[in-house]
Design brief:
The protein is mainly α. Among the domains are: about 30 residues, no CATH class; about 110 residues, no CATH class; about 25 residues. The chain contains 11 helices and 2 strands, in the order ααααααββααααα. The protein has a two-stranded antiparallel sheet with strand order 1-2. The C terminus is likely disordered.
Protein backbone atom coordinates (compact mmCIF):
# COMPACT_ATOMS: atom_id res chain seq x y z
CA UNK A 1 0.00 0.00 0.00
CA UNK A 2 3.00 2.25 0.39
CA UNK A 3 3.35 5.48 2.25
CA UNK A 4 -0.01 6.89 1.15
CA UNK A 5 -3.42 5.27 0.91
CA UNK A 6 -5.16 6.00 -2.41
CA UNK A 7 -8.07 3.62 -1.95
CA UNK A 8 -10.59 6.36 -1.05
CA UNK A 9 -9.72 8.25 -4.24
CA UNK A 10 -10.34 5.12 -6.35
CA UNK A 11 -13.93 4.68 -5.22
CA UNK A 12 -15.39 7.15 -7.74
CA UNK A 13 -13.49 5.79 -10.82
CA UNK A 14 -14.52 2.28 -9.83
CA UNK A 15 -18.17 3.33 -9.61
CA UNK A 16 -17.98 4.99 -13.04
CA UNK A 17 -16.47 1.80 -14.48
CA UNK A 18 -19.32 -0.27 -13.05
CA UNK A 19 -21.87 2.10 -14.60
CA UNK A 20 -20.07 1.97 -17.96
CA UNK A 21 -20.00 -1.82 -18.01
CA UNK A 22 -23.66 -2.01 -17.08
CA UNK A 23 -23.27 -3.64 -13.68
CA UNK A 24 -24.95 -0.55 -12.21
CA UNK A 25 -27.97 0.95 -13.94
CA UNK A 26 -26.99 4.28 -15.58
CA UNK A 27 -30.46 5.62 -14.81
CA UNK A 28 -30.02 4.90 -11.09
CA UNK A 29 -26.48 5.89 -10.09
CA UNK A 30 -25.48 5.79 -6.42
CA UNK A 31 -26.79 8.86 -4.56
CA UNK A 32 -23.34 9.70 -3.24
CA UNK A 33 -21.66 10.03 -6.64
CA UNK A 34 -22.53 13.72 -7.12
CA UNK A 35 -21.23 14.58 -3.66
CA UNK A 36 -17.99 12.65 -4.15
CA UNK A 37 -17.43 14.34 -7.52
CA UNK A 38 -17.72 17.78 -5.91
CA UNK A 39 -15.75 16.86 -2.79
CA UNK A 40 -13.29 14.07 -3.59
CA UNK A 41 -11.96 12.17 -0.57
CA UNK A 42 -8.41 12.76 0.56
CA UNK A 43 -5.87 10.13 1.44
CA UNK A 44 -5.50 8.89 4.99
CA UNK A 45 -2.37 10.56 6.32
CA UNK A 46 -2.45 9.31 9.91
CA UNK A 47 -0.31 6.40 11.01
CA UNK A 48 -1.94 2.95 11.03
CA UNK A 49 -2.65 1.32 14.37
CA UNK A 50 0.00 -1.16 15.44
CA UNK A 51 -1.29 -4.73 15.26
CA UNK A 52 0.18 -7.40 17.47
CA UNK A 53 0.34 -11.01 16.30
CA UNK A 54 -1.59 -12.10 19.39
CA UNK A 55 -4.53 -9.84 18.45
CA UNK A 56 -4.69 -11.00 14.82
CA UNK A 57 -7.21 -13.65 13.84
CA UNK A 58 -6.15 -17.06 12.55
CA UNK A 59 -7.47 -16.21 9.09
CA UNK A 60 -5.25 -13.15 8.81
CA UNK A 61 -2.25 -15.04 10.18
CA UNK A 62 -2.78 -17.87 7.71
CA UNK A 63 -2.23 -15.44 4.85
CA UNK A 64 1.35 -14.92 5.98
CA UNK A 65 4.13 -17.36 5.24
CA UNK A 66 3.82 -20.48 7.43
CA UNK A 67 1.44 -18.54 9.71
CA UNK A 68 4.34 -16.85 11.47
CA UNK A 69 4.85 -13.25 12.42
CA UNK A 70 5.48 -11.07 9.42
CA UNK A 71 6.23 -7.44 8.79
CA UNK A 72 2.52 -6.64 8.75
CA UNK A 73 1.87 -8.65 11.91
CA UNK A 74 5.02 -8.56 14.06
CA UNK A 75 5.33 -10.68 17.16
CA UNK A 76 6.66 -9.14 20.35
CA UNK A 77 9.38 -10.94 22.24
CA UNK A 78 9.13 -9.49 25.76
CA UNK A 79 6.77 -7.75 28.12
CA UNK A 80 8.91 -4.62 27.96
CA UNK A 81 8.47 -4.35 24.21
CA UNK A 82 4.78 -5.11 24.60
CA UNK A 83 4.34 -2.26 27.06
CA UNK A 84 6.31 0.15 24.90
CA UNK A 85 4.39 -0.72 21.74
CA UNK A 86 1.02 -0.31 23.46
CA UNK A 87 1.97 3.24 24.39
CA UNK A 88 3.41 4.10 20.99
CA UNK A 89 0.61 6.59 20.22
CA UNK A 90 0.20 7.86 23.78
CA UNK A 91 1.55 11.40 24.25
CA UNK A 92 4.32 11.84 26.74
CA UNK A 93 3.38 13.17 30.15
CA UNK A 94 4.79 16.63 30.70
CA UNK A 95 5.80 17.52 34.22
CA UNK A 96 7.24 20.58 35.90
CA UNK A 97 8.91 21.14 39.24
CA UNK A 98 6.11 23.46 40.32
CA UNK A 99 3.35 20.86 39.94
CA UNK A 100 4.02 19.07 43.22
CA UNK A 101 4.48 22.38 45.03
CA UNK A 102 1.17 23.66 43.69
CA UNK A 103 -0.68 20.54 44.78
CA UNK A 104 0.78 20.81 48.29
CA UNK A 105 -0.14 24.47 48.67
CA UNK A 106 -3.68 24.27 47.29
CA UNK A 107 -4.42 21.14 49.28
CA UNK A 108 -3.56 23.12 52.41
CA UNK A 109 -5.37 26.27 51.20
CA UNK A 110 -8.36 25.17 49.07
CA UNK A 111 -10.13 28.53 49.42
CA UNK A 112 -7.33 30.22 47.50
CA UNK A 113 -8.77 28.66 44.35
CA UNK A 114 -11.99 30.62 44.93
CA UNK A 115 -10.24 33.99 44.72
CA UNK A 116 -10.51 35.70 41.32
CA UNK A 117 -7.30 35.77 39.32
CA UNK A 118 -6.09 37.93 36.45
CA UNK A 119 -4.08 35.91 33.92
CA UNK A 120 -3.79 38.70 31.36
CA UNK A 121 -0.35 40.28 30.97
CA UNK A 122 0.68 43.49 29.27
CA UNK A 123 3.61 42.19 27.25
CA UNK A 124 3.92 38.53 28.24
CA UNK A 125 7.27 39.25 29.91
CA UNK A 126 6.03 40.44 33.29
CA UNK A 127 7.97 37.68 35.04
CA UNK A 128 11.25 39.26 33.90
CA UNK A 129 10.55 42.23 36.17
CA UNK A 130 10.07 40.09 39.27
CA UNK A 131 12.88 39.51 41.73
CA UNK A 132 11.97 36.78 44.22
CA UNK A 133 15.06 37.44 46.29
CA UNK A 134 13.38 40.57 47.69
CA UNK A 135 10.39 38.72 49.07
CA UNK A 136 7.03 37.31 48.12
CA UNK A 137 5.49 40.68 47.24
CA UNK A 138 6.32 41.70 43.66
CA UNK A 139 5.42 44.92 41.81
CA UNK A 140 2.58 44.53 39.35
CA UNK A 141 1.62 41.06 40.61
CA UNK A 142 -1.29 40.27 42.87
CA UNK A 143 -0.45 38.17 45.90
CA UNK A 144 -1.74 34.63 45.39
CA UNK A 145 -0.71 31.00 45.65
CA UNK A 146 1.58 31.25 42.65
CA UNK A 147 3.66 33.80 44.55
CA UNK A 148 4.25 31.21 47.25
CA UNK A 149 5.35 28.66 44.65
CA UNK A 150 7.82 31.03 42.98
CA UNK A 151 9.23 32.17 46.30
CA UNK A 152 9.65 28.57 47.45
CA UNK A 153 11.45 27.62 44.24
CA UNK A 154 13.82 30.54 44.63
CA UNK A 155 14.62 29.63 48.24
CA UNK A 156 15.32 26.03 47.25
CA UNK A 157 17.60 27.11 44.39
CA UNK A 158 19.28 29.94 46.32
CA UNK A 159 19.17 29.09 50.03
CA UNK A 160 19.91 32.06 52.32
CA UNK A 161 23.11 31.55 54.33
CA UNK A 162 21.39 32.26 57.65
CA UNK A 163 18.82 29.48 57.11
CA UNK A 164 20.75 27.00 54.96
CA UNK A 165 22.32 23.75 56.08
CA UNK A 166 25.41 21.99 54.78
CA UNK A 167 25.29 18.62 53.08
CA UNK A 168 28.06 16.04 52.85
CA UNK A 169 29.76 18.08 50.14
CA UNK A 170 29.70 21.13 52.39
CA UNK A 171 27.22 22.83 50.08
CA UNK A 172 24.38 24.94 51.49
CA UNK A 173 20.88 23.63 50.93
CA UNK A 174 17.37 24.06 52.26
CA UNK A 175 14.63 21.43 52.34
CA UNK A 176 11.36 21.76 50.49
CA UNK A 177 9.29 21.85 53.67
CA UNK A 178 11.52 24.52 55.20
CA UNK A 179 11.29 26.72 52.11
CA UNK A 180 7.54 26.15 52.06
CA UNK A 181 7.23 27.31 55.67
CA UNK A 182 9.22 30.48 54.97
CA UNK A 183 7.17 31.39 51.89
CA UNK A 184 3.92 30.47 53.64
CA UNK A 185 4.62 32.74 56.64
CA UNK A 186 5.48 35.63 54.34
CA UNK A 187 2.22 34.99 52.51
CA UNK A 188 0.24 35.06 55.78
CA UNK A 189 1.93 38.29 56.86
CA UNK A 190 1.04 40.19 53.69
CA UNK A 191 -2.49 38.77 53.63
CA UNK A 192 -2.96 40.03 57.18
CA UNK A 193 -1.77 43.48 56.12
CA UNK A 194 -4.28 43.48 53.25
CA UNK A 195 -7.11 42.62 55.65
CA UNK A 196 -6.07 45.42 58.01
CA UNK A 197 -5.95 47.92 55.13
CA UNK A 198 -9.43 46.94 53.98
CA UNK A 199 -10.82 47.18 57.52
CA UNK A 200 -9.30 50.63 58.08
CA UNK A 201 -10.55 51.88 54.71
CA UNK A 202 -14.07 50.70 55.55
CA UNK A 203 -14.01 52.38 58.97
CA UNK A 204 -12.80 55.66 57.47
CA UNK A 205 -15.50 55.55 54.81
CA UNK A 206 -18.21 54.82 57.39
CA UNK A 207 -16.92 57.71 59.52
CA UNK A 208 -17.72 60.17 56.72
CA UNK A 209 -21.18 58.72 56.08
CA UNK A 210 -20.69 55.76 53.75
CA UNK A 211 -23.06 52.83 54.06
CA UNK A 212 -22.04 49.42 52.75
CA UNK A 213 -25.19 47.48 53.56
CA UNK A 214 -25.24 44.13 55.34
CA UNK A 215 -22.02 42.20 55.33
CA UNK A 216 -21.57 38.51 54.55
CA UNK A 217 -22.24 37.51 58.16
CA UNK A 218 -25.49 39.48 58.33
CA UNK A 219 -26.66 38.08 55.00
CA UNK A 220 -25.88 34.53 56.09
CA UNK A 221 -27.78 35.04 59.37
CA UNK A 222 -30.80 36.36 57.48
CA UNK A 223 -30.79 33.34 55.19
CA UNK A 224 -30.40 31.00 58.15
CA UNK A 225 -33.31 32.64 60.01
CA UNK A 226 -35.49 32.40 56.92
CA UNK A 227 -34.76 28.69 56.52
CA UNK A 228 -35.39 28.10 60.23
CA UNK A 229 -38.76 29.89 60.14
CA UNK A 230 -39.82 27.89 57.10
CA UNK A 231 -38.84 24.68 58.83
CA UNK A 232 -40.70 25.68 62.01
CA UNK A 233 -43.89 26.37 60.05
CA UNK A 234 -43.56 23.04 58.27
CA UNK A 235 -42.96 21.20 61.57
CA UNK A 236 -46.09 22.72 63.18
CA UNK A 237 -48.16 21.70 60.17
CA UNK A 238 -46.83 18.16 60.38
CA UNK A 239 -47.66 17.96 64.11
CA UNK A 240 -51.21 19.18 63.44
CA UNK A 241 -51.63 16.62 60.67
CA UNK A 242 -50.43 13.80 62.93
CA UNK A 243 -52.83 14.88 65.70
CA UNK A 244 -55.77 14.93 63.31
CA UNK A 245 -54.77 11.55 61.93
CA UNK A 246 -54.61 10.05 65.43
CA UNK A 247 -58.02 11.49 66.36
CA UNK A 248 -59.63 10.19 63.17
CA UNK A 249 -58.55 6.61 63.89
CA UNK A 250 -61.21 6.33 66.72
CA UNK A 251 -64.73 7.02 65.37
CA UNK A 252 -66.66 6.62 68.68
CA UNK A 253 -69.11 3.91 67.42
CA UNK A 254 -68.42 1.47 70.28
CA UNK A 255 -69.02 4.17 72.88
CA UNK A 256 -72.39 5.08 71.35
CA UNK A 257 -73.53 1.43 71.40
CA UNK A 258 -72.51 1.07 75.05
CA UNK A 259 -74.44 4.19 76.04
CA UNK A 260 -77.53 2.90 74.19
CA UNK A 261 -77.43 -0.43 76.08
CA UNK A 262 -77.09 1.30 79.45
CA UNK A 263 -80.01 3.63 78.76
CA UNK A 264 -82.27 0.73 77.67
CA UNK A 265 -81.50 -1.31 80.82
CA UNK A 266 -82.28 1.51 83.20
CA UNK A 267 -85.17 0.62 85.59
CA UNK A 268 -84.99 -3.16 85.15
CA UNK A 269 -84.63 -5.54 88.08
CA UNK A 270 -81.47 -7.47 88.75
CA UNK A 271 -83.12 -10.76 87.75
CA UNK A 272 -84.12 -9.29 84.41
CA UNK A 273 -80.57 -8.39 83.66
CA UNK A 274 -79.15 -11.80 84.70
CA UNK A 275 -81.54 -14.82 84.81
CA UNK A 276 -78.99 -16.92 86.68
CA UNK A 277 -79.48 -14.76 89.74
CA UNK A 278 -83.16 -15.61 89.78
CA UNK A 279 -82.43 -19.38 89.75
CA UNK A 280 -80.00 -18.98 92.60
CA UNK A 281 -82.63 -17.07 94.56
CA UNK A 282 -85.25 -19.83 94.10
CA UNK A 283 -82.81 -22.50 95.11
CA UNK A 284 -81.98 -20.59 98.25
CA UNK A 285 -85.63 -20.39 99.36
CA UNK A 286 -86.13 -24.15 98.98
CA UNK A 287 -83.04 -24.98 100.93
CA UNK A 288 -84.17 -23.07 104.00
CA UNK A 289 -87.27 -25.24 104.87
CA UNK A 290 -85.32 -28.41 104.28
CA UNK A 291 -82.80 -27.32 106.83
CA UNK A 292 -85.57 -26.54 109.29
CA UNK A 293 -87.21 -29.96 108.75
CA UNK A 294 -83.92 -31.68 109.31
CA UNK A 295 -83.68 -29.98 112.64
Amino acid sequence: MGKYDFRPARVLPQARLLIKTGRIEPSEPPPWMAVVEDFPPSGTLNRPVFRDARTVSDEQRSRTKFGRASKAYPRLSSNLQDRNMKQIFKPLKMGYNEDKLRSDFFNDHPWELARPKVVLEDSGNDSKNWDWSRGIKQPGKRLDGESVIKRQLYLMANPPPSLARLNKRREPYITKSHAYDIARKEFYFHRHLEDVERRIAKEEAMHVGAWFGPGPLEISMQLENKIFNNWKTWALEQVEIENQRGASQYTGTDLDELEAVVSSNTGLALEDLDPSLQEEGVGGDESAPRSEQSQ
